[in-house]
Write a structure and sequence with these properties.
By secondary structure, the protein is an alpha+beta fold. Helix content is 48%, strand content 7%. It starts with 11 loop residues before the first strand and ends with a helix. It binds a DNA duplex (13 and 12 nucleotides) through α6, α8, α9, α12 and α13.
DNA sequence: TGACAGGGGGTGT
DNA sequence: ACACCCCCTGTC
């Protein structure tokens, strides 16, 4: 294994996060909420959000530890706490879900105990889910990586070097390229649609380009949207090209901490049909069912159901 | 090993 | 209902 200690801070425990199984850490970071985490050969996870970079791993007792490039470590600590929602008691929140009267939810909650909802940067979450239409996670991650690499600003590690790989090497011995942040919406507005297409976006390139034009013409619109009440925020997001109810709910759930948002995708659709017997219901009807049945934290319930259904499919 | 379908975490018309 | 794009995956 390559020496990765050189420019990374020493590993330190992440206070406030209960012990986690490797599978659950993977599900949380790489289960469809976020698209910028990768598993490294040493079994740690490398992730990016905003201008932050961090690595996470589990110690022998399954407690989460973190490390960051030394130059930005002091900023990453608090950012990580926010990103992972450490200010929220997810175990307590999960306990308020109606699992006592819902056997399927109960088994999901038990088998995926410890699952949490990330709090990602709002604008990046919008970009990620604009890429998500009829795409699987691996493909979305590929698009996002290309967007970051080609159109995002290189990240300074805080130590003055701008082209460093921070000593991080892959199993094959080649250096990991310089880290880049995702392009901001202002930056995306200046990228020709053809170049977006070259990032494997397909028909999503037009949506992203048009959304970028709109956001560029309306400064502050996105920040305002993040602060609005759920329904108003959702309505505004849905007015963007390429954003429908599902994408809007994902953005609000994973990028704004709105646990009432209940995205209905094909997995949840399968779940509601197969496990709840809702054959023949329309998508709006299913969304309504979810909000009523699962209550004010329907989005949290959704993540348990979603993870369970994907897990079943992989068996 | 290399082609070749088939289908994909949705939105807009 | 169907087009929109085109990469991934499984299969032959």
């Amino acid at each position: 294994m390559a020496d990765v200690s050189a420019a990374w801070s020493r590993w330190q425990p992440l206070a406030g996060l209960p012990p986690l199984s490797p599978a659950l850490l993977a599900e949380t970071l790489d289960g469809g909420q976020a698209f910028r985490w990768q598993r490294l050969p040493d079994n740690s996870w490398l992730g990016h959000w905003g201008a932050h970079v961090a690595r996470l791993r589990l110690d022998t007792r399954e407690r989460v530890e973190w490390s960051a490039p030394v130059g930005i470590r002091d900023a990453v600590g608090p950012a990580l706490a926010r990103y992972l929602g450490l200010d929220r008691d997810f175990a307590g929140l999960t306990d308020t879900l109606p699992w006592r009267s819902d056997p399927h939810l109960a088994r999901c909650v038990v088998s995926l105990s410890g699952l949490r909802i990330l709090r990602q940067p709002f604008g990046e979450t919008l970009l990620g889910f604009l890429c998500s239409a009829t795409k699987q996670i691996v493909q979305i991650k590929q698009m996002i990586a290309l967007l970051a690499g080609r159109h995002g600003a290189p990240l300074n590690n805080g130590a003055g070097a701008d082209e460093t790989s921070w000593g991080l090497e892959t199993a094959k011995g080649s250096a990991v390229p310089t880290f880049h942040r995702l392009p901001t919406w202002a930056e995306l507005a200046r990228v020709p649609e053809t170049e977006l297409r070259a990032c494997l976006l397909g028909f999503r390139a037009r949506y992203i380009s048009q959304t970028a034009q709109y956001l560029a013409a309306h400064p502050g619109w996105l920040d305002e949207t993040e602060t609005l009440p759920y329904l108003e925020a959702k309505e505004r997001l849905c007015s963007l090209p390429g954003v429908g109810e599902k994408v809007a709910d994902c953005v609000l759930l994973f990028g704004a901490g709105r646990l009432e948002a209940f995205p209905v995708d094909v997995w949840i659709l399968k779940t509601l049909v197969r496990r709840y017997g809702l054959d023949g219901w329309s998508t709006p009807q299913l969304a309504q069912f979810g909000r009523v049945h699962f209550g004010p934290l329907a989005g949290l319930a959704q993540q348990f159901l979603f993870a369970w259904e994907r897990q079943e499919a992989r068996k």
